[in-house]
Input
Amino acid sequence: MDARFLEIADQLLLIERELRVLGWWADVSPSPEALASVEPFSVDRLDFSQWLQWIFLPRMKLILEQDLPLPNASGILVMAEMVYAGRAGETRALRQSLARFDELISEAG
Output
């Protein structure tokens, strides 16, 4: 198991918590068509918070649960900063969690 797994798991929980605190956690999944987007961050069919909840978090949890190789790079914070540029104060904790996730992914395993 990669030594970063536990800290990454903690960051995933923090990301989920922040989405809930912000009121952006949904009880109903987007349509299968929306989830099937092939665009980066599913920008053509999902809000960024939806992508985090329905694509990113489940994929990362699967990687951790199945002890699969972690991605070599992550640029989630850059996307979050673009999406939430006008909401910097409100999204600070979420962006901090995403920043730490990016840092962990970029560290050698």
